């Protein structure tokens, strides 16, 4: 499938589905943290997903071990991926899912900035910048009252997750700007999962984490959701998308995730759904529409 310059219905539908899953991820991490240490939980997730992606690739006869020049870029992407999720899981120990998600979803701006130098063929028009700004304004409306008034140690978690956003953007740019862009989605993902599966458990031991300290049905269910749905199915789809569609346009769509995450919190955690939620939905939807409009035809 040749790379495309616009998002078609397939890409839009998949991005809405994935953004919903990623919004639920914040709730799942919180549930899992009630019984599993943060970095250990991230490591278990990567180990389980590595096994599943290997099985999937074997069934589809995808070649994962052929020499294709992707090893260096793949290891770099894997280390960035491990750093991203170590920071996310640690950050959520200090801050709420609602606070954390706004910092995590600054990543599309880092992708857009990096694309200026690394992906010149994905030039950002002024309308796209304006659309992304509108979408981010929607997120600020939703979380603004808390963004500028952190209490206690919340700023530590905010900072960790803000750094995680930079790691996420760096991973996306590594995939798009190197030979990894020619690799299969399965190979892109297995580099990241396998490296993080090797890095995160030893990091957990170095940090002195207790590991699994209060197992329960909810804890194991949240981990299973992260392994099967998030880290395997949605990430395979995401890396297939960024291989075939413009990274900047896909990243602008990801602003749906924090809003959908708040909706999930309202449904699953009985968090209040205020008028700001619906205002944010409107701004995010408008921003995504503007950012993904085709360029006007030249006269």
From TrEMBL:
Keywords: Membrane, Transmembrane, Transmembrane helix. The chain crosses the membrane at residues 12-33, 39-59, 71-90, 102-120, 127-148, 154-177, 189-207, 219-241, 253-270, 276-292. Pfam families: EamA. Residues 11-143, 156-292 form the EamA domain. It is a multi-pass membrane protein. Coiled coil: none annotated. It comes from the Bacteria. SUPFAM superfamilies: Multidrug resistance efflux transporter EmrE (SSF103481). It is found in: Membrane. The keyword Phosphoprotein does not apply. PANTHER family: EAMA DOMAIN-CONTAINING PROTEIN, INNER MEMBRANE TRANSPORTER. Belongs to the EamA transporter family. This is DMT family transporter. It comes from Thauera sedimentorum.
């Amino acid at each position: 499938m040749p790379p495309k310059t616009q998002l078609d219905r397939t890409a839009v539908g998949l991005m809405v589905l994935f953004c919903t899953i990623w919004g639920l991820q914040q709730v799942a991490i919180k549930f899992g943290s009630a019984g599993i240490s943060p970095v250990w939980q991230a490591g278990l997730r990567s180990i389980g997903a590595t096994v599943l992606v290997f099985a999937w690739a074997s069934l589809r006869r995808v070649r994962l071990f052929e020499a294709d020049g992707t090893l260096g870029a793949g290891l770099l992407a894997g280390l960035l991926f491990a750093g991203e999720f170590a920071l996310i899981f640690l950050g959520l120990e200090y801050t709420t899912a609602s606070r954390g998600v706004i910092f995590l979803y600054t990543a599309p701006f880092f992708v857009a900035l990096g694309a200026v130098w690394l992906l010149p063929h994905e030039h950002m028009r002024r309308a796209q910048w304006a659309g992304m700004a509108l979408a981010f304004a929607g997120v600020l409306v939703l979380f603004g009252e808390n963004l500028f008034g952190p209490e206690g140690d919340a700023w530590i978690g905010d900072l960790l997750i803000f750094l995680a956003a930079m790691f996420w953007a760096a991973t996306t740019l590594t995939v798009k700007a190197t030979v990894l862009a020619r690799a299969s989605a399965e190979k892109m993902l297995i580099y990241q999962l396998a490296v993080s599966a090797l890095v995160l458990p030893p990091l957990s031991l170095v940090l002195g984490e207790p590991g699994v300290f209060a197992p329960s049905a909810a804890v194991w269910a949240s981990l299973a959701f992260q392994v099967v749905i998030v880290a395997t199915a949605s990430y395979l789809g995401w890396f297939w998308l960024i291989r075939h569609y413009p990274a900047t346009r896909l990243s602008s769509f990801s602003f749906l995730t924090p809003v959908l995450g708040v909706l999930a919190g309202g449904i699953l955690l009985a968090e209040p759904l205020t008028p700001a939620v619906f205002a944010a939905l409107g701004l995010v939807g408008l921003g995504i529409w503007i950012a993904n409009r085709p360029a006007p035809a030249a006269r």
